[in-house]
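Me: I hope this is not a bother. Any chance you could explain this protein sequence and its structure tokens? It all follows right here:
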Amino acid sequence: MKISAFLKQWRKLGQLLALVLLCFTLAVGCNREQSSLQVQTTNNNRDRITIGTTLQPRTLDPADSYELAGLMVIYNLGDTLYTYKVGTTDLEPKLATAMPKVSEDGLTYTIPLRQGAIFHDGTPFNAEAMVFSLKRFIENGGEPSFLLSDTITGIEATGEYEITLKIKQPFAAFPSLLAYPGACAISPQAYEIGAGKFNPMKFVGTGPYKLVQYKSNSLRLEAFDRYWGEKPKNQGIDLQIYVGNPANLYNAFRSGAVDVAYQSLVPQQIKKLQEGATSGSWQAIETLGSAVNFMALNINLEPTKQRVIREQLLL
């Protein structure tokens, strides 16, 4: 039962992460209510996408990021060994070139790596760089470090473009851990290994976008012209942050200041935008997500102790 529950949890995470990249680059997002995403059909600068959000990343250091706001950005700046096919929970290779070769005892995973990828600072990607990235994720002790430290016992480069991982006990869902955005490859020239040695306001990875500006209320990403894979369909992304202020996000979208409104609008705003979408001025896109919203009522106090009042509140 424990294994089944864990697998189910990782399938849900996989579905969320698979949708994040689509949200960011093609202006599609997830979550049914608070994250229902609105997209303008017109864009004053067709070379770039402007996304508005109320979520502010705590950190962009992949070894310490464990919240959606940061992971949403990291997912587009970095590449992991494996990723999810968009809109599914099916894994596919990314910086790996094939699914792992697993030993008969289920404890050793051998992974072939992609050749020709480079980091945003020009450093070549290879097995040593991937080993550095995974070790740093574990040893720096960030919030998500347990995802790998509780499972992995050894990491080594067994070829210029091959790594071998050893785990504590057989675990069928292990490749899913390697799809976590924080387990992405980062440049050994830009980071250090050591407890607490984080760089929250920079990112040097191999992803389709590179970070060129990080301010308290905005981030600017440029398409990486030396990206190994399919190039972005735009020149870059501007992320405008309206911290904890859905009203400003809503108004910015209505006025055309942002092309995409994502995470989070309040239900009344979402309803109005959904109604406006029928005129063709913008699109309202929604799908299942991982967030749970709830309201608690104290039935020992007036007026919520009255059932009729509670029923009205829940309508």
